Amino acid sequence: MAASKSQIEELYDFIYPLAVRAGEILLEGYQNAGKAVALKDGEFYNVVTAYDNQIEEFLVEKILARYPDHKFIGEEDTHKNDNVTKELTDAPTWIIDPIDGTSNFIKQIPHVSVSIGLSIKKQIVLGVVNNPAQNKLYTAKLGQGAFCNGKPIQVSSCEHLNDANVAYEVCLLHAPKIRNKHIKRIYHVGSNARRLLAYSAVVDSLCMVAAGNLDAFHIEDMYPWDCAAGYLLIREAGGVVTHPYGGPFDIMKPDLICAGTETLRAEIEHLIRKADQEKHVGGE
Amino acid sequence: MSSAVSESKLKEYYDVALKLVLKCGPLMQEGYQKAKTEYKVKADFYDLVTVYDKQIEDILTEGLVAAFPESLIIGEEESAVSQRQAELTDAPTWIIDPIDGTTNFIHRIPHCCISVGLAINKELVVGIIYNPPANELFSAYKGHGAYLNGEPIHTSKVTTIKQAVIAYEISLIHAAGVRDKNVKRLYKMASNATGTRCFGSAALTLCYVATGQCDAYHVEDLKPWDIAAGAIILTEAGGTVCHTSGSKFDVMKPDCVCAATPELAKNVISLIEEAGQITEYTFK
């Protein structure tokens, strides 16, 4: 049996103020990052790591104090586990990204978030995302809708890619091993989409689909903590989330297409399949 | 110069334009909040934008011509109505986009703005860009620096593409006539840059290079009103704006490379040249 409604309610009431506080810590770092203009390259990442750790430690400490048997899956948590992501079990498991959009955090580009998802019996039951730079706190409980700052949010009704605002993680072109796959997909999706946008912020892009600001988003080669909370927000906002080839979404290997409508999602799937059959862009 | 504009006259142009742009803020915000909520039919979205575009442009043009009867107007709405290709003369000429980032405006993504530039003797001398949803007012006039909400802004010190967060109008891939060019250039630039963004507003992207949030931006095939105000803001913030070939920037055919530093601009131009050499590209 899945988590009970009262259990979800209790956990939501517990985590909400912590997500607010985590957002305050994130905002402090975001505002200070801009003052560190003179920092050398490596030092930027020391700043990010410090805030990443501070936020994660704050959340983990508070959660364990109240729920000592709960588990965690997160970027910093994985790093401390010799970069091996733990398996998802039936135990209540918090899937946390303390700062999504770390490059934006450094540059003060307002697409940054703390993302907190909760899985019970391998089902995502809570999603809370705080983007303090835009003063947006997104929340969803399984079966109870999605909200931004307490107001209901809903995906868009866009059904045709030619009309659609779509986001893509273009930064993935920076990674040689997956570059050809992504340039082909960008070519095909971009050729057909009215707008192709890129924010380098997976969590925020998922929230923007949930809120109807974006009509669709495709991402691959990312991590569970990038997608857990956003996945539930989109589902609770009435959207669809599948594997890029149309199968069920898997939080532990969270390659996905998400969209306001199944019709739009299917069109993107078709183009991704087509792209994957094409020859790659030359050279390199 | 045949008739140099005096400092006090330049300041007057700036002050009057600033007041008028601020006056349009509540109207733009009204439209932004209304978008997507009250319109369910696609055609109505674009009718909505047209209404606000026209109202804002009317306030700006009527105010500017009343204050400066000798000045001329080049604008998106004006060009659309007259179907006439505008020419830039030595006369003081306001180059206006009442809403830049219209797709963002419709979808309530906070990257949309009012953009007003002034050219005298064919040289850009005033730039004002106002993004009411994000409470960002960028302003500059020649020789007096660039400002965000009254605070001085300056470009980053990045000199190499490997350190750079670049911006690129990926949506141009949608246009068949310029698709191949843009896919190749995106491929080259995103492969080499540390990050790549696309915000869907050229005017604001120029401002984000001015603030150091991005380090470089390349775009072609846009209109003078997309680029004019942002170009003077960027140069007053210490950045460089040149034609894609490296020659002098021409606001009436604003194909450009914009960068935090001249060295970075050269890096970007080299990559664009390399992109032009890609021959193994087999997509069609």
From TrEMBL, chain A:
BP term (GO), one: phosphatidylinositol phosphate biosynthetic process
Chain residues that bind Mg(2+): E75, D97, I99, D100, D226
Database matches in Gene3D superfamilies: 3.40.190.80, Fructose-1,6-Bisphosphatase, subunit A, domain 1 (3.30.540.10)
Gene Ontology molecular function, alphabetical: inositol monophosphate 1-phosphatase activity; inositol monophosphate phosphatase activity; metal ion binding
Pfam family, one: Inositol_P
Family, per entry: Belongs to the inositol monophosphatase superfamily.
Gene: cg17026
Pathway: Polyol metabolism; myo-inositol biosynthesis; myo-inositol from D-glucose 6-phosphate: step 2/2
Cofactor dependency: Mg(2+)
Catalytic activity as recorded in UniProt: a myo-inositol phosphate + H2O = myo-inositol + phosphate
The protein's Enzyme Commission number: 3.1.3.25
Protein name as catalogued: Inositol-1-monophosphatase
GO cellular component: cytoplasm
EC class name: hydrolase
Sorted UniProt keywords: Hydrolase, Magnesium, Metal-binding
CDD domains per record: IMPase
InterPro entries: IMPase (IPR033942), Inositol_monoP_metal-BS (IPR020583), Inositol_monoPase_Li-sen (IPR020552), Inositol_monophosphatase-like (IPR000760), Inositol_monophosphatase_CS (IPR020550)
Organism the protein comes from: Drosophila melanogaster
TrEMBL record, chain B:
SUPFAM superfamilies, sorted: Carbohydrate phosphatase
Gene3D superfamilies according to UniProt: 3.40.190.80, Fructose-1,6-Bisphosphatase, subunit A, domain 1
Transmembrane segments: none
Catalytic activity, as annotated: a myo-inositol phosphate + H2O = myo-inositol + phosphate
The keyword Transmembrane belongs to this UniProt entry's keyword annotation: no
Residues that hold Mg(2+) according to the record: E76, D97, I99, D100, D226
EC number: 3.1.3.25
GO biological process: inositol biosynthetic process; inositol metabolic process; phosphatidylinositol phosphate biosynthetic process; signal transduction
Keyword annotations from UniProtKB, A to Z: Hydrolase, Magnesium, Metal-binding
UniProt cofactor(s): Mg(2+)
A GO cellular component annotation in the UniProt record: cytoplasm
Family as reported in the entry's similarity comment: Belongs to the inositol monophosphatase superfamily.
Name of the protein in question: Inositol-1-monophosphatase
Species name: Drosophila melanogaster (Fruit fly)
This protein's encoding gene: IMP
